[in-house]
Amino acid sequence: MKIAIQGELGSFSHEAALKLVPSATIVPCALSADVFAAILGGEADAAVIPIENSLAGSVSEHFDLLLEHEVRVVDETLLRIHHNLIAIAGVQIDQIERVFSHPVALAQCKRFVAHHAHMRAYAFYDTAGSVKQLVESQEANAGAIASAAAARVYGAEILAANIEDNPENYTRFFLVYPTGKAQIPAQPDKISLAFSVANRPGSLVQVLNELAALGVNMTKIESRPVQGKPWEYIFYVDCQVPSSAVADQAIVALHKHCGMVKELGRYQAGAPRE
Questions:
Q1: Of residues 12, 36, 100, 173, which has the active-site annotation?
Q2: Active-site entry in 12, 127, 171, 174
Q3: Contact assessment for residue 77 and residue 196, using Cβ atoms and an 8 Å cutoff
Q4: CA dihedral 15, 19, 20, 21 (to 10 degrees)
Q5: Architecture of the domain made up of 190-273
Q6: Which superfamily does CATH assign the domain made up of 84-160 to?
Q7: Does 173 qualify as catalytic in the annotation?
Q8: Stated pTM of the model
Q9: DSSP conformation letters of 197-215
Q10: How many CB atoms lie within 10 A of CB 184?
Q11: Which residues contact 81 (CB under 8 A, 6 or more apart)?
Q12: Which CATH architecture has domain 2-67+74-80+174-180?
C-alpha cells in the first residue's frame, strides 16, 4: 500500500504513516497539494497529513484541501513529537553555528537554541529534509532539528535528544482516502465536518444546539475564510459521537440551518503514541 506524505523520508509524517499502516510504502511529496494530487491521480492509495499540533495549533492549509477535494478521513493518530539536534558524523555540539529546520520545529525549540549563543536558527521546508540537505552538503558547522528517524534514514548523528521546549508536544495526523475508496470503520466514535451558516443572529447557536440535543460532544471548532468571498467563513468541527446513526442524524440536523455541509470523515479517535 502506498501512502503519500508531505516531506521527506524520516519526517514525522513518515513516522505517523507507519503507525497507521505499518506495511506502507511511503511516497514523499514536496507540497501538500501534491499529496492530494497523488492520491486522486492514483500515484498513492492514501495519504497521511498533519492536521493539528497541541502547541502550534491547526494546519489550516490541510483543512482547506480536505474541503476542496473528494476525500475522506478514515483514521487518526496522535504522535508524540521529540525534536533532536542532528549533525554529520564526527561533529561536536560546540561546532554548530547554523541550525536548520521547519519553522514550527524551530519555534518549539527556541530555548535550546537561545541557550547555545553560538547557534543561529534558519527556516527550511521540512524537518527531515534539513537532515537530508545537511548530509548531502557535509557541512561541519551546521546542524538540523528533526526526528531520530531522520538521523537513522540519512546516516547522521544525534548530538542532543528531546530538545523541545514543552514535553507535551503532540501532532494529530489523519489517514485520508479518495472518497470512492474510503471504508468507514465499523464503530466510528468521531466525525469531522465543515459547514457554513447564514449571516444572521443566532445561526451558529442554532447549529450548536442541534448537536447538543443529539448528545454530540463537540471537541473542536474553528473558522476559515471562504476563498474569493471576503468576510464569509466555513466552520470546521470535530465531534464525538456514540454511533454512526447519531452521526447521520447530526448531518441531517445541520442541513436545516446550513447552506453547505460536508462530512470530512468519520473514524475512531486516536490515542497518544510515543
A1: 173
A2: 171
A3: no
A4: 90
A5: 2-Layer Sandwich (3.30)
A6: Periplasmic binding protein-like II (3.40.190.10)
A7: yes
A8: 0.92
A9: E-SSTTHHHHHHHHHHHTT
A10: 13
A11: 12, 53, 108, 164, 169, 170, 171
A12: 3-Layer(aba) Sandwich (3.40)
- Other beta carbons within 10 Å of 77: 21
Q: Let me know the angle formed at the C-alpha of 162 by 157 and 168, rounded to the nearest 5 degrees.
A: 150
List the one residue out of 253, 255, 219 whose CA is nearest residue 239.
219
Estimate the crossing angle of helix 244-255 against helix 203-213, to 10 degrees.
Answer: 160
The amino acid at 83 = H
The runs of H, that is alpha helices, within 138-242 are 148-154, 203-213
Give the Cα-Cα-Cα angle 117, 120, 123 (nearest 5 degrees). 155
Look-up: residue for cell 483514521?
A: 75
Q: pLDDT tens track of the chain, all 274 residues?
A: 999 999 999 999 999 999 999 999 999 999 999 999 999 999 999 999 999 999 889 999 999 999 999 999 999 999 999 999 999 999 999 999 999 999 999 999 999 999 999 999 999 999 999 999 999 999 999 999 999 999 999 999 999 999 999 989 999 999 999 999 988 888 899 999 999 988 788 889 999 999 999 999 999 999 999 888 888 899 999 999 998 899 999 999 999 889 899 999 999 998 765 5
**Residue 63 is a catalytic residue:** no
Which residue in this structure is represented by grid cell 492549509?
61
Q: How far apart are CA 87 and CA 9, in angstroms?
A: 17
Percent of residues in the chain assigned helix, strand, coil, to nearest 5: 30, 35, 35
CA 59 to chain centre: 6
